[in-house]
Amino acid sequence: MTVRLNPYLNFRENAREAMEFYHSVFGGTLELSSYGESGVFNDPAEAEKVMHAMLTGDNGVVLMGSDVPASMESGPNSNISLSGDDDAVLRGWWDKLSDGATIAEQLTKAPWGDTFGMLVDKFGVPWMVNIAGEPQA
After folding, report:
1. Average pLDDT, the chain
2. Domain segments of the chain as ranges
3. Which residues form the Glyoxalase/fosfomycin resistance/dioxygenase domain (predicted)?
């Protein structure tokens, strides 16, 4: 049995663009379905909006998202944290997520010994990246 924590992002109008961007960052497979395809909502103005997107990226990354219908509250997005000890992969993701982002804290050595940075990507989603440092002897 497997249990996973999957971030699920809410968008109002640009879920397709955002998820395609994340696909370019994390690789893997992106599955998208629209409200029109599902028949869940009958508002023709929202038929092309994304009802559900699932990105199964490389290195175990799973990210989901959708466009929230105009009739519903969208709620806030939360920080998404990427962490581990694969410096090259995590720096690569940081570099790609930085495209058009607002950098809250540069990716740099943190007081706790890891490398850490924070940014808000061009879609308004806040990200934290933590690259594990060398263990203390």
Report:
1. 88
2. 8-67, 80-131
3. 6-128
